Amino acid sequence: KLGRPSELPPEPTPGYEADEEFLRRLHHVLLEVEVLEGSLQCPDSGRRFPISRGVPNLLLSEDEA
Amino acid sequence: GGGGRPPRAAGMAEAEAAGDAGLGPAAAQEGAQLAELAAVIGATVPTGFEHTAAEEVREKLGSASRISKDRGKIYFEVPARSLPQVHRLRSVDNLFVVVQEFKDYQFKENKEDALKDLEDLVKKLPWTDPLKVWELNNSLKKKKTKRKKYNLQSPASRGKLSDGGGEGEADQNNTNEQEDCAQNPVAVEAAGGRDTENPQGVASRNGVEEEEDNEQSDVKAEVQASSESGSKAGEGQTGEEGEAKVLRFRVTCNRAGDKHSFTSNEAARDFGGAVQEHFQWKADMTNFDVEVLLNIHNNEMVVGIALTEESLHRRNITHFGPTTLRSTLAYGMLRLCDPQPTDIIVDPMCGTGAIPIEGAAEWPCCYHIAGDNNPQAVKRAANNISSLLRKNESKDSSAALGVPLDVIQWDICRLPLRTGSVDIVVTDMPFGKRIGSKKKNWDLYPACLMEIGRICTPGTGRAVLLTQDKKCFAKALSRVGHIWRRAQTVWVNVGGLHAAVYLLRRTSEPAQDTRPFW
């Protein structure tokens, strides 16, 4: 979640490979936006992994492993 | 050449300059002829990657290469005007122009006689054309130092940037990187960082212990040299032997073989003496214009003139770590896996990021992911990438052209990547000497191979792994035979250690997905 009104649907819709508009938005989010400070959240466990200076830290702690 | 002139092939610029300076058609024609002069170039490359380098030469220069028996060297012929492209080769450490090659030189058994032969050889060698090439190369270098920064073209196109000393030739490549990608490099200006960790060293041989030394002439200079270091090359003038241009020089001799009656030091000294006599140049060990190379490998001998000073191998790295890999080796490893456009390439133990950075520069149509568990390494890798981005900044727009590369801090045994989602894994595995330990490798290597096997796409995935701990690697590999097959091994030399690069292919067998925590 980038804190903006959602430009992307929650799931890829069928036939997305041909949807130029969607592909542009996807490309933008994937390759043109860089999170410098923030976090990534695991969709299953809800565990947050911090991002600092553009680098996410995905190391698990001792008890999580 | 003129500063305001649009960049052009070297020969054309020289011819034009000569014409403009009112030197008349003869000089202009000489300039154009210089451009077409056939230069035999020798290149030193990481041992083991001679064929890779030859492929790159074929691909980028259209020339076939000869691979020398003296390991780590290849030879090819190009017109002098191709020098800028030669400097942009990414598999090459150092370059020189060949004066003459001797395939089977009979060194006399007696030391005095052998050395006398070398002295006598000097005046018989065909110096003229190679010196012209050297001068041309010099004028290219001068242009490079004048311009500290290169402009990118507008964000819509990618300019080819000069690496080790060419002109900033603008090449309008296709702007749509997603599709038609010609895989042209965004070459990075030489970082200028000195190699303090791994000595470039002499190419050492695996197995055979041969007497080898690498020393330089100890002929000392006495008189002040008035150096006209070939900056007038642009006007088509050449440094003919006997002309009153006093250059400073030194001789570097590399000698390998157990049947020679002399040392490299002696050869350099006597050869150097004859060079001084012949050209009336001044010898100077540190501040030289011309570096004459005398490479002797058993009965093969090559006399050359150096075209590079600093080795190009550390070009991308500004922040070194304790075991930073040289970029030429990184390039060789990447080429081995034959990256295709849209491939996802991961280095899960990236250290300072040498491999992914080289990858992103040369294969911009792939997506590169760098990861390491060590916070220092991650920081250095991120800094190296920032340096790269800063160099790529366009003067016009404030936005830096992005680089298809990301850094993550992670654990190699628990990679946060989906099963079968990665095309290529390339990495420099801990040797157990400077980082980690041999004992740790016994556990690390199998776990590593399993996890790398999981993330790679069955059937098409491949891995290129560099390691010095060959025994441990072989054992680990034998345990994962169901997912990895060894396709090729390249024996290399890394900082004096005998290491191996293994190319592995992922079998079609799907990985077991036993991941409760991701």
Topology of this protein?
The complex is a heterodimer of chains A (65) and B (518).
Chain A (H helix, E strand, L loop, with lengths): L19 H13 L4 E5 L6 E5 L2 E2 L9
Antiparallel strand pairs in A: 1-2, 2-3
Chain B lengths: L9 H11 L3 H13 L1 E7 L5 H12 L3 E3 L5 E7 L3 H5 L6 E9 L8 H11 L6 H19 L65 E5 L31 E9 L7 H16 L2 E2 L6 E8 L2 E7 L20 H10 L7 E4 L6 H9 L4 E6 L2 H17 L13 E5 L14 E5 L9 H18 L6 E6 L2 H10 L4 E11 L2 E10 L12
Parallel strand pairs in B: 6-7, 6-8, 10-11, 10-13, 11-12, 13-14
Antiparallel strand pairs in B: 1-3, 1-4, 2-3, 4-9, 5-6, 8-9, 14-16, 15-16
Helix pairs in contact in B: 1-2, 5-7, 8-9, 11-12
Describe this structure in words.
The complex is a heterodimer of chains A (65) and B (518). By secondary structure, chain A is α+β, with helices and mostly antiparallel strands. Chain A folds into 2 domains: 1-33, no CATH class; 36-64, no CATH class. Helices cover 20% and strands 18% of the residues of chain A. Chain A is elongated, with a radius of gyration of 15 Å. With 518 residues, chain B is α/β, with parallel strands linked by helices. Chain B has a domain at 327-506: Vaccinia Virus protein VP39 (Rossmann fold). Chain B has 12 helices and 16 strands. Chain B has helices at 10-20, 24-36, 50-61, 83-87, 111-121, 128-146, 264-279, 327-336, 354-362, 375-391, 438-455, 470-479; strands at 38-44, 65-67, 73-79, 94-102, 212-216, 248-256, 282-283, 290-297, 300-306, 344-347, 367-372, 405-409, 424-428, 462-467, 484-494, 497-506. In chain B, the strands form 2 sheets. In chain B, strands 1, 2, 3, 4, 5, 6, 7, 8 and 9 form a 9-stranded mixed sheet that branches. A 7-stranded mixed sheet of chain B has the order 12-11-10-13-14-16-15, sandwiched between helices. In chain B, helix 1 runs antiparallel to helix 2, helix 8 (327-336) packs across helix 9 (354-362) and helix 11 packs across helix 12. The radius of gyration of chain B is 25 Å and the shape is elongated. The chains are: A alpha+beta (65), B alpha/beta (518). Chain A binds chain B through residues 27, 31-32, 42, 45, 53-60, 64-65, and chain B through 178, 373, 378, 382, 402, 404, 407-411, 414, 416, 517-518.
